[in-house]
Amino acid sequence: MMKKLYRYLSPLLIAALVLGSLPVAAAPASSGSGLITTQEALNAERSQGDRERIHEILARDEVQEQLVAQGVDPTEVEARVAALSDAEAAQMADQLEQLPAGASVVGALFAVFVILLVTDILGLTNVYPFTR
Amino acid sequence: MTPCPSRHFTKTTFWNARLAGVLALALVMLIMAGCASTPQLAETTKRELPRQTLLEQTPFHGQRDYQCGPASLAMVLNASDVPVEVDTLIPQVFLPEREGSVQPEMLATVRRHGRIPFMIKGNLDALLTEIDAGHPTVVMQNLSLPAWPIWHYAVAIGFDLDEETLILHSGMEPERIESFKRFDATWARSDRWAFVALPPGTLPATTDAEAAMDAIVDFERVQGEQAALLAWEALIDRHPEHAMGHFALGNARYATGDRQGAIAAFEGAVAQDPDLAVAWLNLGLLQQEMGNVDQAREALQLAAAHPGAWQNPARQALDGLKSGD
């Protein structure tokens, strides 16, 4: 039942996303004021393809969803994503799970605990009575 | 009677495997200890830097829970005269589920507060040079081993070349002293990631023109061209040979309504690089907008003469010029 629903829904979603992103991606040379912006000039100079542009535009939506899933306040999410550069947004979308998250020195105690636990089990140390 | 763990004696193959594991672990630990050596500074760095430096005016914010990211940001932003508090930064940069903050968002949050995050080169020479220039620097470290990472942000604020120590506001500890050796070992595990947060108009002491350009463009995307104007002026002061910098300055001046200044900057761009078609194009479009038909035609023709993305817009503008005559 749900599968059937998805089968109809996903092509529609794909079409909507592609159509929504096309005007932005396909018009690099026509800015509002008439002059070419620095960003547009750099994108062209580095021969960034349309495919990459579309990827980066879609990435921002993806990052928004990921941030909400990570427990970020939904009212903050939009401003946080807006402050990312295109490359950073793409990086977040592709590998948020693997990105190191600077946390704390408080965690050090836990890691030392783990290391000592391992060495205890290996018989190198004798810290925790319950490993014997 | 002492309960004697019988498995040690009954399963000899298991015991051998365990012994091998112990030896392997000991070996790995020895190798890792042996790898960490005191990083060497370049001779020029040693000559140019003072023996000791400490940025005493950098305020300290002790981290709570896992929030070394927001705390580090508050320290460098406060040092750069942005009076933001840790509590304001937490919802802007902290990821509750990860119990930490990721690098892209550290940089993004600096932009939100009107400062430009410049990544610096990953070596101790660059780090010490930035500190000496008065720029407290956020560094990312892995305090533990790669297998059990403890990622951590701290703010490097001073050094002592004689003692070979770095001084950091780190975690709960203001002005913590770490040896170059231990610091570099933990910093290397983040690929020596570090950045400074500077107001538009100030450039880092160490980055090259391209890296600075990228940082300012990303800032401009968030804060707008007017906010970036001083940064472009500074880039051109430092690197007068950088054609794209002149081009960017022209756009920023145009955004503030300074059309004469914009024309001068675009002319500066093509003077540095006569093949920068996009600068000819903007120069032509701007001259056209100001009613200088002859200058506009000359610039647009040069833009149209260069094959590439800007040929078509230049030709269209030329057509408009003809029909408008």
UniProtKB/TrEMBL annotation, chain A:
Keyword 4Fe-4S: no
Pfam families in alphabetical order: DUF6627
Keywords per UniProt: Membrane, Signal, Transmembrane, Transmembrane helix
Signal peptide: 1-26
Transmembrane segments: 105-128
InterPro entries in the cross-refs: PA2779-like, UCP029543
Name used for this protein in its record: PA2779 family protein
From TrEMBL, chain B:
InterPro entries membership: Peptidase_C39-like (IPR039564), Peptidase_C39_single_dom (IPR039563), TPR-like_helical_dom_sf (IPR011990), TPR_rpt (IPR019734)
KW DNA damage (keyword) present: no
Residues of the Peptidase C39-like domain: 63-168
TPR repeat coordinates: 243-276
Tagged with keyword Nucleus: no
Entry-linked Pfam families: Peptidase_C39_2, TPR_19
NCBIfam families: C39_PA2778_fam
Protein name: Tetratricopeptide repeat protein
Source organism phylogeny: Bacteria, Pseudomonadati, Pseudomonadota, Gammaproteobacteria, Oceanospirillales
